[in-house]
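The aim of this short unit is practical: by the end, you should be able to scan a pair of folded records and say something sensible about each. We start with the first protein, listed as its amino acid sequence and then its structure tokens.
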Amino acid sequence: MFKVMFLLSADADDPFKCKGPEAASLAQTLFAGLAGYYQSRSMTTQIGDVQPVYSGVAEFWFQTPDAAVAAGLVDISSLLRVNVSVRSVVVGMERVVLRTPDYLVVPRVKGVFPFARKPGMSVADFQHHWWHRHGPIAALTENATAYIQVHPLPAEYAGRTPQFDGITEISWRSTPAALSAMASRQMSEDQSTDAGNFVDRDTV
């Protein structure tokens, strides 16, 4: 699947105008060929007590890359509250490293981590390392219900440099499960050490 993620400004508690069927109906009027729409809202309590950079993420799925690229140019203000702005847009291929069978039916919290590649690293080398080397390490994330990579499409690099070279999404069943995983040796050492091989840490 191909995915468009609109990262929204952090000046509102809830950036979305509506949710449920009403939001789905609005999204259908904006996008031809829309295969799915998901709203993520920032929690007031963040891991490590850091302030959230974004107030939410509007996520849209499409069957073709061309539809996703076109969707990345759409004005989604009709889905948002007043004074909420789009800070960044990532158009990419959703690559699932891990997803448990009950992922869609259990309550969950999700970590959303946009980042840029290590300076001097080519896009091809970056994506290869992230998928083939880091993916198997990340698949061992403690108690995760999903670990997903969003790789920007080649069209996103045509004549420009995107703000982010990828977004990692990690889901857990609860905030305590997320906190435990973030503090684990597997994430703080194994994943963190490998991240230094392909991630510009200052951009995470």
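Turning to the second protein, read its sequence before its tokens, just as you did above.
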Amino acid sequence: MVKLSVAQRRWLLTIHLLFSAIMFGVAMVFLVLSIVAAGTEDEGILKACYASMHILAKTSVRASTIGTLVTGILLSVLTRWGLFKHYWLIAKEALTALAILLGPVGMYFWTLKAFTLTSSKGMGALQDPVFLVNREQLFIGIVLQILSLVSIFVISVFKPWGKRAKEKTV
């Protein structure tokens, strides 16, 4: 199996951390924009918030998620960590699956719906039950995304739960 040199591993880790930072930063921008959208009475600001979130969902969210996923898999496969050798890695993989569902999938569709409704109805969207449910789903998705990413960072630093026991062969 091919293993990375120390320099290669450090570069790959650096790229992984940069993609992860972008992913987390975009999630924080989503949080700020959703709070602004929820508190504004200005139709232009409302539309701009959801338009901005949708553009980010189509670009930065996708790119950072793909970059983080690919570099994370490469780090696992090409280093001593492996994909399933440690419980903390399995936890990170489960949280990554959640982040993928919430990020490129959920954020895209929730922001598209919010953008479409605010574009067609303006401030009238605030009276539409479909919009209100979608706005709540988007906000919950953003919070869950941030919590999952923070959990991944904490797990990466502390590496709790240790190594899995090797299976005994009979």
